[in-house]
Backbone:
């Protein structure tokens, strides 16, 4: 079955750290760019970070730059999000997503995990 | 960053209705526009990419149109499984950004 399964969410105090993991199955993981997208309570979707196929290039939304690090291990079909210096406004459901490409130019998040909840609170 | 604005934020519709959801970009994005469906407790689902291309397996009652700054998602005949929140997302430039969502309810 083609799927993404996230883990690692939980309750953490402001300033703390968490590492999210996402394991892929059912498709050739190493050929896809991967992303994390989050949804804060009562809010819309927000792209957080992505990583290219070889793991050589990573990009982040401004609000997490310097605090979050995306990485991947193609041998383990996994992508990770290391979150440091967490803030209350990082509270959200974090989704692991696959990025597909059509016609060589159009990309979109075509496969999503069920999400893992991160709560930052004292 | 490109801002995406959806309207309406919610709408009430009945089974069989034609439903139209609008999405406007703060600057021209060509046809780099995707539509997603999100149901409570379920993983979001990509419906349409490149403004009007239906992802394989998505029912043909869904369609997308538009280019530049104005886009539309249409559901031709609303089915019970279509009650959900719909998001547009631009992929023209980084960071990719989403609209605020449109809740389709009964």
Residues:
């Amino acid at each position: 079955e083609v799927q993404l399964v996230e883990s690692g969410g939980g309750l953490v105090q402001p300033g703390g750290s968490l590492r999210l993991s996402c394991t892929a199955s059912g498709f050739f993981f190493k050929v896809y760019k991967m992303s994390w997208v989050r949804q804060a309570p009562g809010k819309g979707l927000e792209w957080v970070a992505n990583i290219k196929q070889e793991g050589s290039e990573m990009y982040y939304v401004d609000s997490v730059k310097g605090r979050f690090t995306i990485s991947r291990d193609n041998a383990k079909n996994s992508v990770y999000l290391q979150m440091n210096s967490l803030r209350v406004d990082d509270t959200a459901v974090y989704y692991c997503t696959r990025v597909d490409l059509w016609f060589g130019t159009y990309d979109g998040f075509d496969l999503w995990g069920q999400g893992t909840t991160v709560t930052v609170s004292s | 960053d490109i801002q995406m604005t959806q309207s309406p934020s919610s709408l009430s519709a009945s089974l069989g209705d034609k439903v139209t959801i609008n999405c406007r970009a703060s600057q021209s994005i060509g046809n780099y526009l995707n539509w997603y469906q999100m149901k409570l407790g379920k993983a979001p689902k990509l419906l349409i990419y490149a403004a009007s291309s239906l992802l394989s397996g998505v029912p043909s009652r869904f369609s997308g149109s538009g280019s530049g700054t104005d886009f539309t998602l249409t559901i031709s005949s609303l089915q019970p499984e279509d009650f959900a929140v719909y998001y547009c997302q631009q992929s023209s430039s980084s960071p990719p950004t989403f609209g605020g969502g449109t809740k389709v309810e009964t």
Summary: DSSP finds no helices and eleven strands in chain B.
